[in-house]
Amino acid sequence: MTETRSTHEIRQALLDAALPHVAFDGWSAAAFEAALVEAEIAPAVARAICPRGAVDLALAFHARGDAAMVARLTGSDLGEMRFRDRIAAGVRFRLEAAEAHKDEVRRAVALFSLPHLAPDGAKMVWGTADKIWTALGDVSEDLNWYSKRATLAGVYSATVLFWLGDDSADHAATWAFLDRRIDDVMRIEKAKKAVKDNPVLSKLLPGPNGILGRIRKPQGADLTDMPGRWTDPAHLN
């Protein structure tokens, strides 16, 4: 029954079938084998689409959550919100997209904490941060392209870990934690701007500032080795 389905459809069918098993078996070979049986996918086809088995399904699970977050973020009227609140909304929307699958997220965090899968985990987190900034219309070109995503990736990672252990009503403690982290970031950004705008302090670091100022966001070439891809936000207009 797989001949008429696209690769994406088959992967999503495998993911849907795997999720009930992941809470008990983790993102494991057992969960993957159960999924291909229940989804009626031939083993050869399943392995061709997900050569790493459940690891690839965990990546697809994260990508599904990112897509739901982007759809909600771009479909919301954020015009009256402060920019720091828009960023916080992006992180909150991403966590709320996974609300029904908290155990599966916990299992994914454990999976991508393994040394040989840590690069995949870092790439996923970077990708989420990139999607939030891109959806919010970020047009930075220089080092800011990287620093924004690196900073948000740290905020997102910390908030996910807090969220996984939060049993407060409506995750109120998580959203308060997120607000504090965003405030910390904003204070750092204000401090950086103050140094840059100060004629005395800015001259103390002419070398590093000159080098970093020449860094540009990636574009044009194949970026499969990058933790995140640049997407021109013009398509959001």
Largest sheet: none
Helix fraction, binned, reads: 55-70%
Counted by DSSP, the helix tally is 10
Distance between the termini: 40 Å
Strand content: under 5%
How many beta-strand elements?
0
Q: What is the succession of H and E elements?
A: HHHHHHHHHH
Question: Which structural class matches the secondary elements?
Answer: mainly alpha
Rg over C-alpha atoms, rounded to the nearest angstrom? 20 Å
Please explain how this structure is put together.
By secondary structure, this protein is mainly alpha-helical. It has a domain at about 85-235. Helices cover about 65% and strands about 0% of the residues. The chain contains ten helices and no strands. The chain has helices at about 5-25, 30-40, 45-50, 55-75, 85-95, 100-110, 120-135, 145-165, 170-195, 205-215.
In short:
By secondary structure, the protein is an all-alpha fold. The protein contains ten helices and no strands.
Question: Which features would summarize this protein structure in a list?
Answer:
237 residues; mainly alpha; 10 helices; 66% helix; 0% strand; globular
Q: In terms of topology, how is this protein built?
A:
Blueprint: H1 7-25, H2 29-38, H3 43-49, H4 54-75, H5 83-97, H6 102-111, H7 118-135, H8 143-164, H9 172-197, H10 206-213
